Amino acid sequence: MRNISKQTEPQVLRDSKAIWQIALESNPTDTNKNKYSHPEIKAAIREECWNKCVYCESKVGHNCPGDIEHKIPKTHRVDLTFEWNNMTLSCSECNRRKGDYYDSSCMFLDPYIDDVESLLIHLGPIVLSKGDNPRCEITIRILELDSKSRSQLVDRKYEKLENVRNLIARIHSTTNTTLKSFLIKELYEMSAVSAEFSAMVKEFVAKCGISQA
User: Fold this and answer.
1) Cα four-point dihedral sign 167, 171, 173, 179
2) Are 108 and 98 in contact (CB under 8 A)?
3) Which has more pLDDT, 148 or 62?
4) What are the DSSP E strand ranges found in 44-150?
5) pLDDT per residue as tens digits for the range 98-110
6) Can you give the pTM of this predicted structure?
7) CA separation for the pair 98, 103 (Å, rounded)
8) What is the pLDDT of residues 28-84, one digit of tens each?
9) Within 10 A of 213 (CB to CB), how many other CB atoms are there?
10) Which of 36, 77, 108, 126 has the most other CB atoms within 10 Å of its CB?
11) What SS3 class is residue 34?
């Protein structure tokens, strides 16, 4: 996970959420329940989250569909269905695993509020809590970020790590300073907040002690 800043609420949501909420509460049809999926809202969410799941950092798209995720589930707080600050982006796998989990005494990690980058550690593709933090443990275990049972996710993260290792090997082996500079730039682009699995990559690069040119 990477820390995220909430961006400006889309105009269509500001203009419509009160009307949508009244319609939902008076007539809870699927159409009224899902008006938050408006293209303008989803586009804003995807841009805010760098087009990747806020939990596992998978890029969303054709092979990894993305869902508007309600941090506090609609089943527990229907009044927050159209609240911008309650919306984020998750992949279908993380969304399915999180389900309607809600415990006010042990909330899911919130990358908009919590400093998730200081709370979590990456051992290769596996995510763990840095300390004894029940909220970290609950989030990791529910999403199975510490488990090889999410084989597709783990395989993709291993592939990313292999690319990083190969890039680092080229950086160490080349004697051409111009090429080295380009390779280091590429490496740091892979650890940028917008990149897929960048929390893992950033931590791995830091341990390798490579300074950005």
Assistant:
1) positive
2) yes
3) 148
4) 66-70, 87-91, 120-123, 126-129
5) 999 999 999 999 9
6) 0.90
7) 12
8) 999 999 999 999 999 999 999 999 999 999 999 856 778 899 999 999 999 999 999
9) 13
10) 36
11) coil
Distance CA 11, CA 46 (A): 16
* Pairing mode of beta strands 120-123, 87-91: unpaired
Between CA 85 and CA 107 the distance in angstroms is 15
Share of the chain above pLDDT 70, in %: 97
CA neighbor of 10 nearest in space, from 63, 59, 48, 49: 48
Arithmetic mean of pLDDT, 184-211: 91
- The residue among 24, 46, 47 whose CA lies nearest residue 35 is 24
Amino acid at 15: D
Strand-pair partners of 90: 67
CA torsion 90→96→100→105, rounded to 10°?
-70
- The type of residue at 195 is A
pLDDT at 149: 86
Chain mean position to CA 48: 10
Burial of 33 from C-beta contacts in 10 A (0-12 / 13-18 / 19+): middle
Structure tokens of 123?
A: 């051992």
**Closest by CA position to 109, among listed 151, 141, 153:** 141
* Residue in 206, 204, 121, 122 with CA at minimum distance from that of residue 165: 204
